[in-house]
Specification:
This protein has about 120 residues and is mainly β. The chain has one domain. The protein is built from one helix and six strands. A six-stranded antiparallel beta sheet has the order 1-2-3-4-5-6, covered by helices on one side. The longest helix has 12 residues. The radius of gyration is 14 Å and the shape is globular. The model has no long low-confidence stretch (mean pLDDT about 85). It comes from Halococcus dombrowskii. Keywords: Plasmid. This is DUF6516 family protein. Pfam families: TumE.
């Protein structure tokens, strides 16, 4: 797929998982493999719905942008994969090579029951 072609949005979902806390994620596939290895753009976000007014019972540190508590993505178009914790990059994070493995790790770390289709459903 050429970089200038519009990718297909495979799945995008938002769900309030507790009062004031949400999970949102998207998978875009196929995507230009040079920009989004391994050919899929993904972003999985766990955070507060209103960063200016976070719930009192949130146990995770809250990042300065988007109320991020945990985020995995390669949503930058530069071929990099990131894990953000509390708004900071995890310098030790290495992409496993599988978007499905990132999806599983994300839900395991948050303790949220996975919802919606897995990247495995799309072979990404």
């Amino acid at each position: 797929m050429a970089d200038d072609e519009s990718p297909e949005v495979v799945y995008e979902k938002r769900k309030m998982v507790q009062a004031g806390v949400l999970v949102r994620y998207k998978f875009i596939y196929p995507a230009a493999i040079g920009r989004y290895p391994p050919g899929a753009c993904y972003a999985l976000h766990y955070g507060v719905a209103d960063p200016a007014n976070p719930p009192d019972d949130v146990e995770w540190p809250i990042g300065p942008r988007q109320g991020t508590m945990l985020r995995y993505d390669n949503d930058h178009g530069d071929g990099t994969h990131h894990r953000h914790v509390g708004g900071d990059l995890d310098a030790e994070y290495e992409f496993s090579g599988s978007v499905a493995a990132v999806y599983d790790r994300f839900f395991r770390e948050t303790g949220i029951e996975p919802f919606g289709p897995s990247p495995e459903d799309y072979d990404i």
